[in-house]
User: What shape does this take?
Amino acid sequence: MEKFVALTASGIAFGAVLAIVALGFLVLYKATGVINFAHGDLVTLGAYVAVWAIKEHDMPTVLGYVFALIAMFGIGVLIERIAHAPLRKRPHMVVVIATLAAAISIRGAVSVWQGSEPKSLPSPVGDGVVHILGAVVAYQRLLIIGVSAVAVLGLVALFQRTAFGRQVRALAADPDTARLHGVRARSIAMIAFGMSATLAALAGILIAPLSAVDLNFGFNLMVLAFAAAVIGGFGSLGGVVAGSLVIGLTQQLVGGYVLPAYASTLPFVLLFLMIVVRPTGLVELERSRL
Amino acid sequence: MSDSTALDTPPAQDAATGASGASGRGSGFDFATTLFRRRSTPQPPVYGQHHYLVTGLFLVAVALIAPEIAQSRSDQFLVNLWLVYCITGIGFYWVFGLAGKFAFCQTFMMALGGFMSAFLTRPDGMDQPFLVGVAGAIGITCVVALLLGLSVRRAQHFYFAIATLALESIGHTVFKEWTDFTGPNGTTVGVPPAKIGGTEFLLETEVFWLFLGALAIVLLLASMIERSPMRREAVAARDNLLVANVAGVRADRHQLMLLVMGSGLGGLSGALIAHWNGVIGIDSFGIDLAIGIFLMLLLGGSGSMWGPVLGAAFYVLVPDLLSDIERYSAMVYGLVLLAVVIAMPDGLVGTIRKGTEAVLRLVDQFRGGRPSPAPATADVGGGGAGLAAGEDTEIDIGGITGGDVDEVGPATPPSAGTNGGSHPAGDHDDRDDHEGGGGAAS
Assistant: This one.
């Protein structure tokens, strides 16, 4: 029982982080149609910015976190200017390759800046644990679940209740018509890049205290988040959250009980089967909406 | 196969090509077409690229020059690395450049081929000769690619990319955990050196000839594909699947074929690496190499079989040249790639070709003593001699935008009646590509 509770808690926490990664990725996809392969490296970069602020500049933990989020918004906008704006009229594949180039550049820049040894990031809630039904659960995991829930609800509100959200949804549904109706696609693209990078950083910061931060840390998360997005139908917010939880729980529970050595491949096996059987995802939508 | 009339030439352009043919093609660039123009079945312009001749010259040049300039062991190592990357790069060119499949699994195929060959040949494995190992490596990668291609055949674009990314990740863990097949911690040591007949390839200089031989076979194969209708139809399907399907192109078949063959080359290069180094570890086939293969193709140009060859040279040389600032190499790659994508979408090969073409046109003008009329020049760009500008320049896989109405334009089936099928269908992919790119850019 303890094992089950502990595995479930870590599965949900991991799924929550994946949901944040996947949502950041989807926000950008919806607003601009860009599939951003640099998203994983933005996760890494966000975690490193927080490490830098807190460890090297002795910022208080929470302040360092907030600093990282704000800095990453700026970096997101910068990436939009460098790697997206000049390619606006070019085929999508070129833009995708440009994001791959951005990913390599970010990775290279981080390795120059911070070196390649793994770093650790302190948690704002310390290393404390709480006992739930006899199982040991780190405070950090509860924090992840709480923050993620708030972030997801905030995104839902943003997309359903604000003018910005309406415009993004319009762009997602039909970019040309949306532009004809006066949606400012360019400024929205900049904001979307910034938001996406902020969400990436949030995910990185949340998960980093549970493990070490290294150069590949974000990329692996991104691939899993792709899996979550695909399983969730690649469009609906709820689907993505559900997909993330499925991935997180599968990896922890099935991996924890049955196949420890192969635990990390389970989401990919799931993903692969999903693409084979239902290339459109579990939650099939006629039109993708947020 | 080659006379898929729906992809035939529009009459207007046909006439223009005919009129300007003498000046456009007489530029010395497209010699064969000029030579054989009177034959009842005209040669497809793609033959004017002289693939066999260029391949032969390239191989002779490498055979003569490389041993001369690569005197030190480390230089010889780099040359060999370049050759083996050329092989995998050409395979990836088939998958990504021609079939338009965003596949992340080329490194997985390399690792699979390497481990398979190592398992077949190592004394505590099957203890078979080298050639059996290589054949096994190519065989297993082809089979795995076939299964992959069949099982995800309904997945398009992004989903295909994700599926291959998943395969790569699964493979990584499996190779690491299945120690009976690979070895402790996903590393096989003691792979015997390559040996054909009585000749053992142990030194770097000996390995060079083995790799050059393998590359020769691969380039020959690549030339055949470059000249084949399959390439043209695959490119048509890549750029606009809908129109290609309507025109009767068996797109799925071509894409599967290219995926299988390209993966087979990945397996071959992995096997060669294993026997060359004597050791193969899964960690050297990680995401860095996967991105590196992308870089090779994109830097060199994804529109021609020479793109990966040039790109691989760049990829191998740059870290060596920049060894003082090696820690910056990843960043340099990224920024160079970004610059290439923005400023040189055709890669190095495309840019060089465009330059050559411009110079040739200039020379032609001076020699002829009159400027070519503008429409003719434009047509040269799109048609026969424009193989450079047109055919080989696409990064635009059209993939994600496929089905976009704008892009349907150039490929719209023309009135087949008026030109009576006298025109070689081979003329066509050039023009298609070119205008597809133009349409997308406008």
About this structure: Residues 228 and 268 of chain A are 10 Å apart (CA to CA).
